[in-house]
Inverse folding.
């Protein structure tokens, strides 16, 4: 009997058809030995090397040039850090990190809302809109006269959020929107409020 | 540490330059210098700088005298400080958007205690920011603080989408147009929202209610 030529009952044990207790006493030692050998076998599935592994295997087996070999050989490196030399570079790096991380992470893109502004001002020759959305520029957003009764309108697409504004009549008179809530502007006048 | 010591002045310099650039040609050099100083100090306290710049630009556009513009900017800083302290008191994480929203609510007539009460609802920072803006808008509509905070609190607790929260001022205006007072309109809406919260939102609407308000020391 060769080393792996087991008794048929032991083979049934290996196939899982029998347990060790099912074996007659004279075969139990052989059964235990068979199970021990089976447990020692590497049961990992066979894997063919991928393209990357094949390429890396080829690279690793290729002899390295002397310069590369010297660079790849482990050796002790000692760094002497002089803070006064590194400080400007570190400061620049820190400033860049603050600059890069600050505004970009703090300001997610707001959604946009289209709003129609209306003012009835029959006597007005020009009406415009100034507010937080256009840097309070009284010339940036003119309203259009849309009817014979002096109705002025403008349609804007604004970011969601809270805006304050006022109409500017004939370039000089700041008028709050009569159809919107208003708050004190800090200068003795009222700003209209738009919350989107 | 050395990097931080060098980076800090660089950052402050960058902030001042940013303020100066935004104010260039819009306000007098006096106002610009005052806002640069105030803004730098405010930023160091974690306050947003944009409301200060906006107020200065607004003053310049309206032709307001320098001293009054500077006074108005300082008032904005005061509102921001009040809002930031109130939010901290309420246990809310105070990002600059939330602080600015709180400052707007203060400028509209609410006080620090009102802001703290809203912060204690335990809403998300985004929802709290919208809640503060809406509370400020309701205050501008004439809703008294008690009814205002009651309505916004119950709406925040309901966990409804913020879009629903934004409809509150229009709902109050609608009730006022029918003859109700702002206080009665807000109280009525608050009762309706609370009742809906007890019975749950209609099928297919709203979100699960918020977890209970965390306790505060």
């Amino acid at each position: 009997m060769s080393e792996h030529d087991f008794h048929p009952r032991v083979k049934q044990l290996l196939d899982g058809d029998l347990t060790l207790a099912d074996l007659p006493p004279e075969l139990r030692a052989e059964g235990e030995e068979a199970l021990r050998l089976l447990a020692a076998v590497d049961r990992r599935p066979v894997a063919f090397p991928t393209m990357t592994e094949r390429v890396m295997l080829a690279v690793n087996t290729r002899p390295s040039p002397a310069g590369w070999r010297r660079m790849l050989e482990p050796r002790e490196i000692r760094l002497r850090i002089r803070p006064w030399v590194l400080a400007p570079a570190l400061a620049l790096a820190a400033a860049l990190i603050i600059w890069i991380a600050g505004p970009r992470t703090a300001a997610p893109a707001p959604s946009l809302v289209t709003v129609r502004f209306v003012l009835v001002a029959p006597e007005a020759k020009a009406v415009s809109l100034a507010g937080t959305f256009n840097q309070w520029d009284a010339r940036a957003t003119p309203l259009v006269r849309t009817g014979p009764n002096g109705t002025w309108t403008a349609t804007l697409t604004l970011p969601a959020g809270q805006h304050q504004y006022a109409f500017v009549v004939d370039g000089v008179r700041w008028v709050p929107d009569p159809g919107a809530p208003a708050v004190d502007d800090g200068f003795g006048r009222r700003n209209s409020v738009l919350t989107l | 540490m050395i990097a931080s010591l060098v980076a800090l002045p660089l950052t402050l310099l960058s902030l001042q330059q940013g303020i100066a650039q935004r104010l260039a040609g819009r306000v007098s050099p006096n106002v610009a210098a005052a806002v640069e100083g105030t803004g730098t100090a405010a930023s160091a306290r974690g306050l947003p700088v944009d409301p200060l710049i906006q107020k200065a630009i607004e003053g310049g556009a309206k032709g307001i005298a320098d001293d009054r513009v500077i006074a108005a900017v300082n008032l904005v800083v005061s509102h921001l400080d009040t809002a930031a302290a109130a939010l901290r008191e309420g246990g809310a994480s105070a990002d600059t958007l939330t602080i600015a929203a709180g400052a707007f609510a203060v400028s509209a007539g609410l006080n620090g205690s009102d802001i703290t009460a809203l912060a204690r609802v335990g809403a998300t920072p985004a929802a709290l920011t919208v809640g503060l803006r809406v509370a400020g808008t309701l205050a501008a509509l004439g809703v008294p603080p008690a009814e205002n905070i009651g309505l916004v609190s119950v709406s925040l607790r309901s966990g409804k989408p913020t879009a629903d929260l934004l409809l509150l001022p229009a709902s109050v205006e609608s009730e006022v147009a029918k003859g109700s007072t702002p206080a009665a309109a807000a109280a009525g809406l608050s009762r309706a929202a609370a009742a809906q919260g007890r019975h749950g939102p209609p099928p297919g609407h709203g979100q699960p209610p918020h977890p209970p308000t965390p306790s505060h020391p």
Q: What stands out?
A: Chain B touches chain A at residues 2-4, 6-7, 10-11, 14, 26, 54-55, 57-62, 64, 68-69, 71-72, 75-76, 95-96, 101, 104, 107-108, 133-134, 136-137, 140-141, 166, 169 (CB under 8 Å).
